[in-house]
Amino acid sequence: MSSNRKLQLIWLSFGVSVFLMLLKFAAWWLTGSSAILSDALESIVNVLATGFATYSVYLSAQPRDLNHPYGHGKIEFFSAGLEGVLILLAGIFIIVQAVRQWIYPEPLEELGTGMLLVGSTMVINYVVGYYVQKEGEKQGSPSLIADGKHLQLDAFSTLILLVGVGLVLFSGYVWLDRLISIVFGIILILNGFRIARKSAGGLMDEVDDTTLLRVVDILKTRQKEYWIDVHNLRIQQYGADLHVDCHLTLPYYWDLEKVHSVVHEFEAILEEEFASKVEIFVHVDPCLPACCHHCRLADCPVRQFPRTTSIDWTRENLVLNQKHFLETLKSE
Predict the structure, then answer these.
(1) Residue 41 CB coordination number (10 Å)
(2) Residues 249-293: pLDDT tens digits?
(3) I want to staple 56 with a disulfide (CB 3.0 to 4.6 A). Which of 51, 79, 230, 267 is the partner?
(4) Which of the 8 DSSP states describes residue 322?
(5) Which is nearest to 196 in space by CA: 77, 92, 305, 34?
(6) Within a 10 A sphere around the Cβ of 99, how many other Cβ atoms?
(7) Distance CA 175, CA 105 (A)
C-alpha cells in the first residue's frame, strides 16, 4: 500500500467520524437519551483519535533520516495506543454520565427519529471500519487497524444502544436507558485497554508470534541445503515495516562473493513473502566441524563427520542465540 493510499483511507475515516458524530449529537438533541448521548460522546473520541492517526500515518511515511535510522513507523503504535486510552476514558465518562442521569432523570422524546439517525451511523461505521481494517491488515499498519476496529466497535455498541432504546420505547422503562449506557461504558473500557496493551507491546518490541511463526514457516519450507544453521532470529515491527535480524551459518570455505550472493537470496525469499517493506540484517557465521552432524550439503569437500541428525527449525530454537548443534550436544 502506498503512503498516499494510506492517507486516503485515514482521511476517509476522519471525514466519516466527523459526519457521524454530528448525526449522533442531533439524535441526542432530539431525544435527550442518556444512551444516545453516550454514543455521541464516544464519537468525539473517534474524531480525536482518527485526527491523530492521520498525522501518524503521514509521519510514518517519511523516509528515514540521521535522527531516525529505522524510520518513523513506530509512531503508528503510539497512535493506536492513544486511541485505546481515549476509548477507555470515554467509557469511564459515559458511566459517570449514566449514573448522574439515573440520579437526576430527564424525560425522553422523539425516540423513533433518534433511532433512525443513530441506526444510519451504525451501518456507515461498520462498512467503513471493516474496509479500513482489512486494508490496514494487508500492510500491517497499526494505525489503520486500530482505527478500523474502533469504527466497528462503535457500530457494535450502537447496535446494543438501539436494542436498548427500542426496549425503552416499547416498555416505557426509562431506567433501561441508563443501564445500557453503563454496559456500553464497560465494553469501551475493556476494548480500550486491549488496544492500548497491544500498542505498548509494539513500542517495547514485544514478539508478535503470528509474524514470527510465519517467518519460521518460510525458512523451513524454502530451506536450502547450504543453509547449515539459522539462529538468533529477531523480528521487530516499525509501523507497517518489518525488521528481521538473524545469524546464518554457511560453509567456511566459500569466498566472499558467493556468501554475498547467498545472503541476497536469503533476503529475497523473506521479502517476497511479505507485502510490506522488509529490512533484513544477516550476520554470517562460518561452519564448524560439529556442524557436520546435521549439515545437509551433499557434496561438501571438507566434511569431517557423517550427517547423523536432522534439526527441525521451530519458533523455540530459531530465536536462541547459539548454533543448533550446541543445543543438540547439551540434550545428549
Answers:
(1) 20
(2) 999 999 999 999 999 999 999 888 886 678 889 999 999 888 898
(3) 79
(4) S
(5) 77
(6) 15
(7) 9
- Pairing mode of beta strands 229-238, 278-286: unpaired
CA atoms 207, 210, 213, 218: torsion sign: negative
39: phi > 0 → left, psi -120 to 50 → alpha, else beta; which? Answer: alpha
Q: What is the pLDDT of residue 109?
A: 60
Residue partners of 44: CB distance under 8 A and separation at least 6 = 21, 90
State yes or no: pLDDT of 1 exceeds 50: no
What's at 109, amino acid-wise?
A: E
Task: Report the range out of 72-86, 204-218, 285-299 with the highest average pLDDT.
Answer: 285-299
Q: Please report the domains of the chain, with CATH numbers, ordered by start residue.
A: 3-203 (1.20.1510.10), 209-331 (3.30.70.1350)
Q: Which residue from 36, 39, 136, 22 is spatially nearest to 79, judged by alpha carbons?
A: 136
CA quadruple 9, 10, 13, 15: dihedral, nearest 10: -100
Highest mean pLDDT among 28-42, 114-128, 163-177: 114-128
How far lies 231's CA from each of 115, 206, 246, 316, in Å? 58, 18, 6, 10
Note the pLDDT of residue 329: 45
C-alpha cell at 316: 523455540
